Amino acid sequence: MYPDSARPTGRGVGPVSSVIIWVLFLVSLLLPGAASGRIYIDVNAPSIPKFKIAIPDFRDLSKDRSHPELAAGLPGVISGDLDLSGYFRPLDKEGFLDENGVALTSEGINFRDWSVIGAELLLTGGYTCIGSRLEVEIRLFDVFWGRQIVGKRALGKISGLRHLMHRLSNEIIKSLTGHDGISLTKLAFVGNATGKREIYVCDYDGYGVKPLTRDRSIAILPRWSPDGKKIVYNSYKQGGPMLYLRDLSTGSVRRLSGRSGLNIGACWAPDGSKMALTMSHKGNPDIFTIDLRGRILEQLVDHWGIDVSPAFSPDGKRMAFVSNRSGSPQIYLLDMTSKTVERLTYDGRYNTSPSWSSRNIIAFASMKEGRSDICTIDPSGGRLRRLTHNEGNNEAPCWSPGGRYIMFTSNRSGAYHIYLMNANGQNQRRITSGKGEQTSPSWAPE
Amino acid sequence: MGKRVMTGFTAMIFVCAVLFLVSSCAKKQVNISESAKPPVEEAKGETEVVKEEPREEETVVEIVEEKEIPPELVRQVEVFENTNIYFDFDKSNLKPEALEVLKAKAAFLREHPSYSVLIAGNCDNRGTEEYNLALGERRADAAKQYLIALGISGDRIRTVSYGELRPADPRNNEEAWALNRRDTFKLFR
């Protein structure tokens, strides 16, 4: 409708301009340090604006109309992804004025019908099913300007439709935010649906849950390798908490460390060549590195106190860990070369579970007055933020591969389930459901 | 347990069990505790299904034990295994009550040198899983070190930590937490 050059330059309210403002805002949130000092910033107050997006049912373009259920099913997956991304607010379909199926291209769309209900973006789509194959075409429009922002076609199997739609969601998110979405990432967690704790894997949005272990013992603390091809975890199937390595392509399981006492909480080095973990075979829980054959490389931390929960920095040069050497559990940073240790957390008496993001922020669980919340802090000790507020216990934070989202466990609904939120604490959404409790999330690349 | 009618089938099991017991006794390894499984040497690849068969065996062993052990000893074993020691939040130091309990346990172990003990350290569910596993380890180790100080050989004491994984009381209140911050004791021979 309007060529780019004809846009009025003085206005900054269109969705595309607000993208820029909002990306700048996000970047400013993540830049290191203007404000230091250990104060909790209330991230509930200034909220990042979300795009209001209308996603009407997709049009069935097949001749035989063999899969009418996909008309709502396909956009449903995208709608879910966009909601979880934290950048979009999918509008309620009840409010849509145009009910007779939306045209795919801008020529057939009455954008006024969409702007009047508050939509800033409109996503239209059509699909064709041939046998077991599925072809989906989507177009994303800026409602204000009536301009197409994204046009994509995807081909795949009907049985893999969630994967196909996740790919399209990522295209939409990438085109509007400039960074990769999380729609194709995977999650490992501990579930006790069978009465025993076992490891499960699923898509990042909680769909497609598959059991990984059937130890019928106690399996805990899954940790995905950086390349997403292996998972280490602890199991009591041979007595105490020993460390096992599961190769996801072959399905083989190998014991990596069966030393007496603890062999727990392994953290992969960023290059995947080794891992740090807590072992107590020498009589006290200390942190060691081992290689992928289970041989000890180095004792990193040797102290009479409890030392657990190693978490490498993205460059592998430092490691966060938890120690109670001060009298209560606090997070410390170890320089891997000089072996010097400095204390990171001072606020409160119980700070544990560090997770170091690829964007160099440390998330952790902080317990105050008997209640645990997720916080983030810079490795310099500055910009301490509390991300959860007055909603049960919140524990075990885990960063997304790109460092923009955090998974964590919370018992805000009664039992423990896994939740997802933006790095600033906004848009908290429950991910896992089903019988029993789900805990101990680990996030893998796609 | 142990008061079942002896049908032909159970009689057969009984005979097998006696044989099993005799051979096991020779090795001083009868395992009367579910959680006292000694670690096996090698991991056996992927464990797919059913590994719980030994349960039948364990039950049978107990039946025989109860017939052979004098009632007084049975009672002492029960008291030993049912008396826990308790800890304060985020602490692994032994409280005065715990010292008394451990003295009694040491006396039993001195008197019955054929018994060994598995100490399991536990925590309440507050705080972090990994930290609590380490804390449970320290709680079990605290009891072990005290028993050693009382003259019991370290070879007869094994420890395992369950962290917050095995609460005695699953509720979420002060009373339950206090019951869950504990060491439990299992005897094996």
Q: How do you describe this structure in short?
A:
The complex is a heterodimer of chains A (446) and B (189). With 446 residues, chain A is mostly beta strands.
Describe this structure in words.
The complex is a heterodimer of chains A (446) and B (189). Chain A has 446 residues and is mainly beta. In chain A, 12% of the residues lie in helices and 40% in strands. Chain A has 4 helices and 31 strands. Chain A is elongated. Chain B has 189 residues and is an alpha+beta fold. Chain B has a 4-stranded mixed β-sheet. Chains A and B meet through strand 14, strand 19 and strand 23 of A and helix 5 and strand 3 of B.
Write the layout of secondary structure elements.
The complex is a heterodimer of chains A (446) and B (189).
Chain A: H1 15-30, E1 41-42, E2 51-54, E3 59-60, H2 70-85, E4 88-90, H3 111-115, E5 121-130, E6 133-142, E7 147-157, H4 161-177, E8 186-191, E9 198-203, E10 210-211, E11 219-224, E12 230-235, E13 242-247, E14 253-257, E15 263-268, E16 274-279, E17 286-291, E18 296-301, E19 307-312, E20 318-323, E21 330-335, E22 341-343, E23 350-356, E24 362-368, E25 371-377, E26 385-386, E27 394-399, E28 405-413, E29 415-422, E30 429-430, E31 438-444
Parallel strand pairs in A: 1-26, 2-4, 2-5, 3-5
Antiparallel strand pairs in A: 5-6, 6-7, 8-9, 8-31, 9-10, 11-12, 12-13, 13-14, 15-16, 16-17, 17-18, 19-20, 20-21, 21-22, 23-24, 24-25, 25-26, 27-28, 28-29, 29-30
Helix pairs in contact in A: 2-4
Chain B: H1 8-26, H2 54-68, H3 71-82, E1 85-86, H4 96-111, E2 116-122, H5 129-149, E3 157-163, H6 174-180, E4 182-188
Parallel strand pairs in B: 2-3
Antiparallel strand pairs in B: 1-4, 2-4
Helix pairs in contact in B: 1-2
* Arithmetic mean pLDDT of chain A: 88
What's the number of helices of chain A? 4
The amount of helix of chain A comes to 10-25%
Query: What is the percent of helical residues of chain B?
Result: 40-55%
